[in-house]
Amino acid sequence: MKSIRFHVLALVTSIGLVASPVHAQEATTAKVSVNGMVCSFCAQSIEKRLSAMPETGPLYINLSNKVVAVQPKAGKTLDMDKLRHEIKEAGYEVTAVEMVPKTVAELRAEYRAKK
Predict the structure, then answer these.
(1) Total domain count, the chain
(2) Can you give the CATH number for the domain in which 95 is found?
């Protein structure tokens, strides 16, 4: 009987460990390529506009790669047209928008690792 309990516990534990990374990957982030963004003032301008949006959660701006990563707040979704509009109103051109199954923190870590 102890052997069966052990195997059931081992199976439940391994299923829990397998399920955890999948759950973490459910986060979706908008990865926006932006032309014209060349300095920290450019980044601040975009950050200020995007942070004012009620659905915007964490964001990250990488000047050298001209990328803005925006994650929605919990329970919210991002409006891609609104994102594009806000960046355009800040004076920059959006060249591409891609939804990626990563968090802003994961994207930040990837860009820092590439340096």
Answers:
(1) 1
(2) 3.30.70.100
In this structure, is residue 9 part of a structural domain? no
What does the alpha-carbon distance between residue 38 and residue 54 come to, in Å, rounded to a whole number?
26
Higher pLDDT, 52 or 2: 52
In this prediction, what percent of the chain has a pLDDT beyond 70?
77
Q: What is the pLDDT of residues 25-42, one digit of tens each?
A: 456 999 999 999 999 999
Closest by CA to 29, choosing from 107, 92, 94, 82, is: 107
Instruction: Enter the tokens of residue 27.
Output: 């986060």
Given a contact cutoff of 8 angstroms between Cβ atoms, the answer to whether 70 and 97 are in contact is no
Q: With the C-alpha atoms ordered 93, 97, 103, 105, is the resulting torsion angle positive or negative?
A: negative
Given a contact cutoff of 8 angstroms between Cβ atoms, the answer to whether 93 and 111 are in contact is no
